[in-house]
Specification:
Elements: H1 13-28, E1 38-48, E2 51-60, H2 66-79, E3 87-93, H3 103-108, E4 113-122, E5 125-136, E6 139-144, E7 147-152, E8 156-161, H4 165-182
Parallel strand pairs: 2-3
Antiparallel strand pairs: 1-2, 4-5, 4-8, 5-6, 6-7
């Protein structure tokens, strides 16, 4: 899935050109052999004083490490070398509590714990936690302690995976037991 530009539009022609060049470069990265396994989670350009800060957020199966971030930054810097405006480039991991931005994310992270923030209260709350159940029609489904909760997409402010280290430890333990049984 492509980059979802989350640009804070930079005023002036030069800033807009830089933001557009950054978006094109970011969208092109997964098409390069070295970065085929990289998912562009988001990108944004924001004016800070006399410079523009360009932020690329990425994910990869198995995780993102410093070496990958450095490689991506080096490649983006080369792709943006013809830009005359001053900029700072940041490449970051989507993190353990990564945002879910694309429709495909809701299937990919099905059955994972999520936190959903809504624009209006549902059942008296704007923050909802539970297991992601995917999508039904125009609603995001989460399974809470009180049952299934459909949340209309127009009310969704943000959705993030909630990392649970205990779940990772339990999964690792199950995998080790399974590996011992197979031997």
């Amino acid at each position: 899935m492509g980059c979802v530009p989350r640009f804070v539009v930079v005023r002036g022609k030069t800033g807009l050109r830089l933001a557009e060049a950054f978006e094109r470069a970011a969208l092109g990265l997964p098409h390069e052999e070295a970065f085929r396994d990289v998912e562009i989670v988001g990108c944004r350009a924001q004016r800070r004083g006399a410079t523009t800060v360009l932020v690329l957020t990425v994910d990869r199966s198995g995780g993102v490490d410093l070496k990958l971030c450095e490689s991506l930054a080096t490649r983006l810097d080369a792709l943006l070398a013809d830009q005359t405006e001053s900029f700072t480039l940041e490449v970051e991991s989507a993190g353990l509590n990564r945002p879910l931005l694309h429709p495909s994310d809701y299937e990919r992270f099905r059955d994972r714990n999520v936190r959903v923030l809504t624009t209006l209260p549902i059942g008296g709350q704007k923050t909802h936690r539970g297991k992601l159940g995917g999508v039904r029609g125009a609603a995001l489904l989460i399974h809470t302690d009180h049952g299934e909760l459909p949340i209309p997409f127009e009310m969704v402010k943000s959705v993030n995976v909630e990392y649970d280290p205990r779940a990772d430890l339990a999964r690792d333990k199950r995998e080790r037991r399974h590996a011992d049984k197979v031997r």
